[in-house]
Amino acid sequence: MTVRERDLLEIAHRFPLEGFEKSFKIVGGQILDERFLFAISREFIDEPTALQVFDDLVMPETLRNQLSPLIWKADLIHFGWEVENKVGLCKVYLEFSSVLSSAAAKNAEPEQSLLLHRACKWDVSDANRQLITNYQVFPNIGIDLIESRMNASYRSDENSSIARLMSALLRLVCERASKPPLYLEMSEDVNKRSSWCIQIWNAKLHLSDVGRYLQFFAHHNGASVERLLAIGRASNNGQISNISGGIDRKERPYLTVYYV
Q: How far, in Å, CA of 240 to CA of 209, rounded?
């Protein structure tokens, strides 16, 4: 365990949490599962304390300057960790969930989006490798438009089978949920990332419910299906909270599943 990963887990023990999620990402022929994310309500972490936590995590100054003016508006602060090819990324998200009940959300057109999260991510071994990710939520988007936008994120015909798979997965979510999933899109100014996220907690889907979709994606991606099944067993068939996909910052198709 790295120093920064240990620091994050220590923060998770210091505050009451809104949730603690694990996740795995299928990309580039790998299944990456050294990942977690947890949230703290602003009720329990005031602005000076948040800034001190940022400093404890050695957040690069440029990123700190991006987030610090927005802390007062945030409803939640998320902290996360992920590893790919032995490179550790520390992540801090501000969530502005109050926007979902705002007049702007209620009056939004189907393709109109609002900022829900602003995230800072940095390589703990090389602070020059850093980025800002904006997560835009579409409060009034319909299922057909969600499907269209999800499919468009894959860009090329060579990913058409993945797009069809995601359409089938979306239909399963809609069959099981009491209401449409919350739909977000993510972007980063410094690369060609084109990705989406659906929040599906109310669908009450577990990893086994979407197993055949995940196995298809893993096989298509050249990743180990056996490794995927082992993660499912180790998680005790965890319940899925979010699914993210599209094209990552290296222009590779990916799928990430968050679960508890």
A: 10
Q: Are 65 and 51 in contact (CB under 8 A)?
A: no
Task: Give 253's strand partners.
Answer: 247
Contact 77, 19 (CB under 8 A): no
First and final C-alpha spacing in the chain: 21
User: What confidence tens digit (pLDDT) does each residue in 73-101 have?
Assistant: 999 999 999 999 899 999 999 999 999 99
- Cα–Cα distance measured from residue 94 to residue 114, given in angstroms and rounded to the nearest whole number: 14
pLDDT for residue 249 is more than 80:
yes
Q: Can you count the helices (H) and strands (E) in the chain?
A: 8, 11
Compute the distance between CA of residue 24 and CA of residue 92 in angstroms, rounded to an integer: 18
- Token digits for 6? 């240990």
SS (H, E, C) 83-123: EECCEEEEEEEEECHHHHHCHHHHCCCCCCCEEEEEEEEEE
Over residues 103-160, the pLDDT tens digits come to 999 999 999 999 999 999 999 999 899 999 999 999 999 999 999 999 999 877 778 8
**DSSP type of residue 148:** H
Q: What is the pLDDT of residues 32-61, one digit of tens each?
A: 999 999 999 999 999 999 999 999 999 999
- The domains of the chain are located at 3-259
DSSP state for residue 46 in the 8-state scheme: -
